[in-house]
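Title: Prediction job returns without error message
Component: structure pipeline
Severity: low
Priority: P3
Assignee: unassigned

Description:
Job completed but the reporter wants confirmation the result is attached to the right record. Sequence as submitted:
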Amino acid sequence: MKIDTTMIEGYDKMTPEEKLAALEDFEYNDGSDEIQRLKSANTKASNEAAEYKRKYKEKLSKEEQKAQEAAEKQKQMEEELEKLRLKDKVSTYKAKLLADGYDEALAQASAEALAKGDTDTFFTNQKKFIAAHDKAYKAELMKQNLEPGGGDPPAPKTKEEIMKITDAVERQQAIMDNPELFGLQLD
């Protein structure tokens, strides 16, 4: 805080030594009295507010107090019910995602996002799942021996074996491949 030299009488006409002596003797008001007064007023107001609150609670009837407590309990129960509903949704979604082949962590994150309506996160996680699934599927295909087998073609099936085929398209193809078993002539 700077000293207002206009408050020192004749300051502008003093010699430097006199100015120094005047400044050393100068006492300025730092506002500590005002600060103390404001602190006292704040303390008094806080105490009065606490007293009014205490008096208000005393004046509330027992029924009003019970009603207020019941309302608070109702609010807590509703919040807890909402949490349980969300948890149930997450659990249901997670079970479905796990059944579809999601890993545990990705299923949990996706289920939470879906339950909260965060579709952006859900679709991002779905892309991750599809990428991982495709990679695993390609790896599985690579493990299988896909080289054509050598040797003679399979022996023709008997008429009884062909008639036991349950798939109609497959059965029809087998009949067309073996017309001689059924007395058919194909041109």
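Comment from assignee: result matches the submitted record. Residues 62-99 form the longest helix (38 residues).
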